[in-house]
C-alpha cells in the first residue's frame, strides 16, 4: 500500500472509457467551454459598462457569473489537457486545489442565491425600506459573505485533508473531489476532524436552503395580494427560482450518487452525473437572466441593433 510520503501523484481514471472518442469529446468540450466564457463574460461586461445596471440585483448577478467562470476554469482546462495526454495524472497539490475549487464554486453559488433571495425579499416585501436596507456598504458585505464563507470552510477542510496519510492514489472521477481523497486515507488514519467539518458544512448550507424557503414564503404571500408585485415576481424571481432549482437538482443528485450510488453504471454515465453542475448552470444562468430581466434584455437587443446598423 502507498502512504502519504509517496502519494504525490493521483491518477484520474474516469476518462479511460472515452479513449476512442477523445478528439470528438475534446472538440465539443472546447466549444462548450468557449460558450460558457462568452455568455458569462458578456453579461459581466454589460453590467459593468452600463451605469443603469449598477443596482444590487445586477451586481449579485455579476458575482454569480464570475463564480461560474471560476468553477468551470477549475475543471475544463485540466480536462481538455487530459484528453490530449497519454496518462491522466494530477499532482497531490493540484488535486487538493481542484477539490477546493469544485467545492467552493458549488457552495458559493448557493450563498449567492441566498443573498439574491434576500435582495428580492426586500425589494418586493419591504419596497419602502429597500434602499435604506440595501445600501452599498451592506451589499458589499453580502457579496464578501457569499464568497468568504465557502472559501473559509473549504480552506479548513482541504487543510485537514492534506494531513491525512493516504493508502491509494486512484480517483474514479474526471476531477478531484475532497470526499474521495478522504476515502483514500489509510484505515488507521483519524478522519474525525474531516467528518466534523463535513457535517458543519452541511448544516451551514442546509440553513441557507431554509432561509431561501423562508424568503419565498413571504414573497409568494405578498405577491398574492398585489398585481404589480406579481409582475415584479415573474420578472425578477422566476429566473432566480429556475437557477436555484436547477442547482439543487444537479448538486443533490451528484452528492447522493457519490455517496450512495452504484458503481455498476457505465463509466460514461457516471462521468455525466459527476459534471452536471459544470455543464448546466454555467450556461443556463446567464441565458435565463439575459433573456428574462428586462433591462439586460433591452441592453443586449440595443447592442445587436447597433451592430446591424
What is the helical fraction, as a range of percent? over 70%
> What is the number of strand segments?
3
Largest sheet: 3 strands, mixed
The low-confidence runs, each spanning 5 or more residues with pLDDT under 50, are 1-5
Strand content: under 5%
Order of helices and strands: EHHHEHHHEHHHHHHH
The Rg value, from CA coordinates, equals: 21 Å
Keywords:
three-stranded mixed sheet, 3 strands, globular
Description:
This protein has 309 residues and is mainly alpha-helical. It is 75% helix and 3% strand. The protein contains 13 helices and 3 strands. It has helices spanning 22-49, 56-73, 76-84, 92-125, 130-133, 136-161, 178-183, 192-225, 227-260, 267-274, 276-279, 281-292, 294-308, and strands spanning 9-12, 89-91, 170-171. It has a 3-stranded mixed sheet with strand order 2-1-3. The radius of gyration is 21 Å and the shape is globular.
Summarize the structure.
Helices cover 75% and strands 3% of the residues.
Topology of helices and strands:
Layout: E1 9-12, H1 22-49, H2 56-73, H3 76-84, E2 89-91, H4 92-125, H5 130-133, H6 136-161, E3 170-171, H7 178-183, H8 192-225, H9 227-260, H10 267-274, H11 276-279, H12 281-292, H13 294-308
Parallel strand pairs: 1-3
Antiparallel strand pairs: 1-2
Helix pairs in contact: 1-2, 1-3, 1-12, 2-4, 2-12, 4-6, 4-8, 4-9, 6-8, 8-9, 9-12, 12-13
